Amino acid sequence: MAAEIRPPAPGASVTTRASGRADEAAGAVIGHFGHRLFGLPFTHIGAVRRPEGGLWPFGRPWHYWWQAHYLDCLVDAGWRELERGQYYDGGFDAGALRARLLRTIRLRNLLNFTNSYYDDMGWLALAAGRLDALAEAAGKPRRLNRAALRALRPALESAHTEDLGGGLFWSTQRDFKNVPATAPAALFFARSGQRERAEALVDWLREKLYDGGAGLYLDGLRLAGGEAVMVSDIYTYNQGPVLGALLELGRPQDLDHAAGLIDAVAGQLTVRHEGRPVLRTHGDGDGGLFTGILARYLALAANSARLPEATRTLARSLVANTADGFWAGRRIENHRSWEVLVFAKDPALAAKTSYPPGEPVELSTQLQAWMVLEAAATLA
Description:
The protein is mainly alpha-helical. It has helices at 16-33, 64-84, 94-108, 118-138, 143-159, 179-191, 195-209, 236-249, 252-268, 290-302, 309-328, 351-354, 363-377; strands spanning 34-35, 45-46, 49-50, 176-178, 210-211, 216-217, 220-224, 227-231, 270-273, 276-279, 331-335, 338-342, 361-362. Strand 9 and strand 10 (276-279) form a beta hairpin. The longest helix is centred in the first third of the chain and has 21 residues, at 64-84.
């Protein structure tokens, strides 16, 4: 796997304050949302919301791709643990939780790593690939990670067809090709040695779904009555994995395009908060994850020596400002004998506004804030 999936190497200038904030977010999400599946020992999964509601796990929504990003966040924490040679001060063995979470995703998904949505599988493939790189660096077992990758890779390959000129289908219904499926798969293929396939996917995205006027990527192309219909929504998370794939491939045109994409994000996907631009968000539910994903890949850009310094500075400021917003807006929620941090759905809002005391808090939005804080902790 490529080096860019890792935070800066030991010795890089990573701020202690940012790392401490990421530790706090990790402890909050793990402690508040993490639990055993069906009470089974050696399992770990994230609750969809707290308080959860419902009496039986199979009667609750199953958000496979939220769990994939939970795993990605645990991997972020793992790289920081490895660099400083100790677990974060949260009372959790994150190394054990990572393996348990991946195993429990498979268990909860009816003993399968695959499902009906190729975007879901792309996110889990990226997380499992990063987990495998971390396990290799830390000298930990890799069998489970490799099993996940063996299952997910051919599934993603099967969705890459010549229909609509290329790209990946979003689901097994095969009536929609979009950025959320194609971009994570392109990044996964680029990282795992299938460069030609990754280049083809990135080029298809640029040809079919890039809005030159906006400088951003539209959502996708839907097949309706034999015709391709553009779905022109613009989301923060669609820009993120495209940026990651461009950086991973690193062709001159990719790097030029990455710089332009960051400029467009700064110009169109931000709001002003206390005089500074922060990344805008998309509410809760699935949208509660979107901006965390963009921040992850902006941090990679900020640390990429192949980009112009002005571009890196811009990416760095967007991540840092957004992290500052989430941190400043946090609130403390009391749970009998312990306390937990709650983060807002939006870095420009206070958590007491997003989530007034007593209102259920969703895992997606808390992962988003954690992901942004982890991204900020990697900034050199």
